[in-house]
Design a protein that fits this description.
323 residues; alpha+beta; 10 helices
């Protein structure tokens, strides 16, 4: 089992997904029915534990059975209440967001806004956790090439990540992911540091302001699906995406993206995909999500959503939008 996926003291992988969306990419976790209750999601995702905090102390003297301790000023250790595993050392001003709160946030908007929870879980032993809810679905030009829009809310318990909400998309045919940003967009990502209190109502307001973002994204992918891109242009774009130079041209990543673009990619020969800017973007996202070098599939997933892989996909979208 990779260290990225959390396993609790009951031996349960802390991940749940909607069965109607198909089996999760890693084949693990608990599949839930469309009508699953909020409590079933909390239990299925293994997010029913709490984060606790304690002052950091260190031993200064030992004499027989007596040990003297001093406290580290303004520092707390965060830990799980179920198995006492440490999560991180943070400031005493660190504002905790509980795993259950992430799902609690979706409880109201799923009921009122017509969204549907699609996945939730934790990684790195509970140091990070997230949930996604489906917004809608679109097709660039072919009904076979469906794109699902999602709201993703994630946070951390070790200080490595702020509480963050952003719009993302998943290409159904191969489960490629892409942030729903586009040239000229504003306010497509909500973020609050752990120095501030997480206010769910602010995120809900963010969602209201971004109802137009999903429509704009759908129009943008139709435009990209109608923009021709030949192999020569794809080579130029890929070279620029990866930094340029002879070493890039000889690299496995550069050649893999081009092979995916030329027809090896999943759904790459569909109308609106083959020989288009949208097709080139999908070759980049498929490379990042499924082929880029990584220690494990789980590590690749983390990179593709929050790390270098996510940055690379965003650059690909920006380059395509300049065409």
């Amino acid at each position: 089992m990779s260290a990225e996926l959390s396993v609790n003291n009951k031996g349960q992988v802390e991940f749940a997904y909607l069965l109607s969306d198909g089996q999760a990419w890693h084949g693990l976790g608990q599949g839930l029915q469309d009508n699953a209750s909020h409590d079933e999601w909390v239990a299925g995702a293994g997010m029913d534990w709490k984060i606790q905090r304690s002052k950091v102390r260190y031993a200064t003297e030992r004499s027989g059975d007596v040990t003297k301790y001093l406290e580290l000023p303004e520092k707390h250790v965060l830990f799980r209440n179920d198995d006492k595993r440490p999560l991180g050392v943070v400031s005493d001003r660190y504002q905790i967001v509980q795993p259950r709160e992430v799902l609690e946030f979706f409880k109201d908007i799923v009921k009122v806004g017509g969204l549907q929870l699609s996945a939730a879980g934790t990684i790195y032993g509970g140091k990070r956790f997230w949930a996604t809810a489906k917004i809608g679905e679109a097709s660039p030009t072919s009904l076979k090439d469906r794109i699902g829009g999602y709201l993703l809310l994630s946070t951390s318990a070790d200080g490595s990540q702020a509480t963050e909400a952003f719009l993302t998309s998943i290409r159904v045919v191969c489960k490629n992911t892409l942030a729903m940003a586009f040239q000229g967009s504003k306010g497509s990502r909500y973020k609050v540091s752990h120095r501030s209190v997480f206010k769910p109502e602010d995120v809900k307001s963010f969602m209201g302001l971004n109802e137009a973002a999903w429509d704009a994204f759908r129009h943008n992918i139709v435009r990209l699906a109608n923009k021709p891109v030949d192999v020569t242009k794809a080579e130029e774009l890929t070279l620029e995406l990866m930094g340029g130079g002879e070493k890039v041209v000889a690299s496995a990543g550069y050649n893999k993206i081009l092979d995916l673009f030329k027809g090896d990619g999943q759904g790459s020969q569909l109308d609106g995909v083959y020989g288009t800017a949208w097709g080139w973007i999908q070759s980049c996202t498929e490379y990042v999500d499924h082929w880029a070098r990584a220690r494990s599939d789980e590590n690749r997933m983390v990179s593709s959503q929050w790390g270098p892989g996510a940055d690379m996909k965003q650059r690909a979208l920006e380059l395509a939008n300049k065409l």
